[in-house]
Amino acid sequence: MSEKYGIIASFPDTPSFYHAAEKVRDAGYKKWDTYSSFPVHGMPAAQGQPRSKVPVFTFCGGITGFCLGLGMVWFMNAFDYPLIIRGQPFFSPVFPFPIMYELTILLSAFGTLGGMFITNLLPQHYSPLFNSDKFLEVSGDRLVIAIESRDGKYDPVATRQFLEGIGGTDIEEVSA
Amino acid sequence: MSSDITNSKGSNVGLIALVVGVIGIAIALLGFKQGWDNGDVRPIMSWLIGFGFWLSIAIGMLFLTQIWYVFHARWPTIIRRQCEHFMAAFPYLLFLFLPLLAIPFLHENPGLLWKWMDGTNALPGHGTVGEDPLYAWKSPFLNIDFFTIRAFGIFAVFIGVSALLRKWSFNTDKTGDVNNTHKSRRLSSLGLFLCAIAMTLGSIDWFKSLEYHWFSTMYGVWFFAACMRAALASIIILCVILAAKGYLKGILKQAHRYDVACMMLAFTVFWAYISFSQYFLIYSANIPEETFWYNIREKNFDGGLNSWWWVSMGLIFGHFLTPFLLLLWYKTKVVVWRTVAVSVWILAFHLLDLYWNIIPGKLVVPDHGEGYLVRQFSITPYDVAALVGIGGICIFAMCRSMKKAEPIPVRDPNILTSLNYTE
Question: Any idea what DSSP says for residue B420?
Fold first, then answer.
């Protein structure tokens, strides 16, 4: 049990939780996170998080869907088995448009869902933080900041003092 | 939020707008008079385009105000007030519509602009309007008396609903009575239906009936989408100007701009969706009474591409694809100059969309059988004069209203939520 996952500290209310997060960010820690049972507005900025990368996945999914729809209709109606419909051309960007945009929407949605899983590192059924009984109270009313031992600035003593200094209570190390 | 600053600035801008507006209107009326005397419809269409452009902004703002009331939206409270100010333009717009309404009553050819208004007007290869079975079928709706009644009815709805919403909202400033908000919500839930009907009838009467032969069930929705895009783009520009000049400094936040820009993105897609649907249904059905409307926007009678083909491509790539791709980026929605640039872009192409809907028409060529010419794309000085002139009057109306009330609804029940709004 000498291996430690990290150190957690609890905070009594949302403002102190929020401002503590800003101080952890400014102290230069990278591998850390905040945990609460409700969303705290502005927390991503207080944690110094960049904007989500999910839109990139959405965009790539959408482009793929658009091209897939276009290619599919071209392959089926103009290349593999040319069909005469209402005297219209075998292929045109006009009539397959419903298929193109439906596939754009479908694959955008898949891209968004997949991107959300990938950027959130999901599925993740286990976290060493569950070893702490105090951490489990996050699903109730506890507000927790956890700094991981793999952070370059992590030091068992200095980090504990730092968390005390920014108003953390119930500070404990969590085993890996 | 000193009302002195508001008043002095408002009156200055209002006065300039009034002077510019009157000069513009005078020039546009000169063109109108020339067209009237020569039987040339193009300068009269300049007036219709200028009128349509500013009317669409006012209608869009009226819809947004009511939609925000119905959905209990709290964040746009400070923006709603700016819409309420602009809605003061409706009575002036009715007044500015009267020259067009005078044509069927005072001109020797009542069908100078809307050609169905005179049964003796010739059609390409089809005799006259009076001999046209399609006009006979549509005449219970398309006749001058009913048209006039509808025009006043449409404006009665717009003026009535906007005046009540304005009055109650301004009353809240003075009394703080929350009942004003409740009344506005109740009116909005009915007013949305009334305004939807009025807007649809207006778009059919004034724009669609220019080619009365045509059929499209999407036309009212197209105009709705166009109005919303114009209004949202104008709101961004207006609010950014007000924030820079001081009335909304520190009040208009990134979150407000971001959300309006998100709605701009949504309505860009919506405009493309219904514009394409209209085209797609007509393309698929392939019925001559419907396809001619798109044909003249693409080709001349001899089959060669005409100027409208380029305008059509401009609308697809400029009015949809460019703003769509730009607005997908988060930065476009929060960096002020980028959002304003996209808004100006959208307004410019909204104007082009109105050109595209209003100007093309079949011109009869004598002794040419079924043949016709297409009225081509052009921008005339009278277009600019009408646009600036009618715009000047609308901005004057807005500034005049700004002197009457606070820059934001200071005692509205939702004002704090709006002031403290974050993304």
Answer: T
Min Cα separation B210/chain A (Å): 26
Mark the ranges of chain B whose per-residue pLDDT is less than 50. Answer: 1-8, 10
Q: Do B328 and A59 touch (CB under 8 A)?
A: yes
Contacts of residue B286 in chain A, CB cutoff 8 Å? 86-88
Q: Do B284 and A41 touch (CB under 8 A)?
A: no
Average the pLDDT over A120-144 and give the result.
91
Torsion of Cα atoms, B289 then B295 then B300 then B305, to 10°: -170
Please indicate, yes or no, if residue B373 is contained in any of the structural domains.
yes
Question: Closest partner residue to B276 among A51, A87, A97, by Cβ?
Answer: A97
Domain layout of chain A by residue ranges: 4-50+126-175, 54-119
Task: Inspect the interface and report whether the beta carbons of A41 and B422 lie closer than 8 Å.
Answer: yes
**Cα dihedral: B67, B72, B76, B78 (round 10):** 110
Residues of chain A with pLDDT > 70, as a percent, come to: 99
The answer to whether the CB of A33 falls within 8 A of the CB of A174 is no
Q: How far is A64 from chain B (nearest CA, A)?
A: 16
**Residues from chain A contacting residue B316 (CB–CB below 8 Å):** none
Do A51 and B279 make contact, defined as CB atoms within 8 angstroms? no
**Residues A59, B422: C-beta atoms closer than 8 Å:** no
CA-based nearest distance A43→chain B, Å: 11
Between residues B123 and A112, the one the model is more confident about: A112
**Token digits of residue B85:** 């100010």
Instruction: Give residue B126's domain range.
Output: 3-413
Q: Please, which residues 14-53 of chain A have a Cβ atom closer than 8 Å to chain B?
A: 41-42, 51
pTM of the full structure = 0.91
Instruction: Say what the pLDDT of residue A165 is.
Output: 92
Partners of residue A97 in chain B, C-beta under 8 Å: 276, 280
Query: Residues B321-361: pLDDT tens digits?
Result: 999 999 999 999 999 999 999 999 999 999 999 999 999 98
Check residue B2 and give its pLDDT. 40
Residue B420 lies in a domain: no
Chain B residues whose C-beta sits inside 8 Å of any chain A C-beta: 276, 279-280, 283-284, 286, 328, 330, 422
At how many degrees (to 10) do helices B219-245 and B254-285 cross?
160
Measured between CA atoms, the residue of chain A closest to residue B279 is A94
The average confidence (pLDDT) of chain A is 91
Taking an 8 Å cut-off on Cβ atoms, the answer to whether A94 and B328 are in contact is no
Confidence of residue A2 (pLDDT cuts 50, 70, 90): low
**pLDDT confidence of residue B8:** 47
The count of domains in chain B is: 1
ipTM of the complex: 0.82
Q: Is residue B370 part of a domain?
A: yes
Residue B271 and residue B137: Cα distance in Å, rounded? Answer: 30
Radius of gyration of chain A (CA): 25
The token duo for B40 is 């040339």
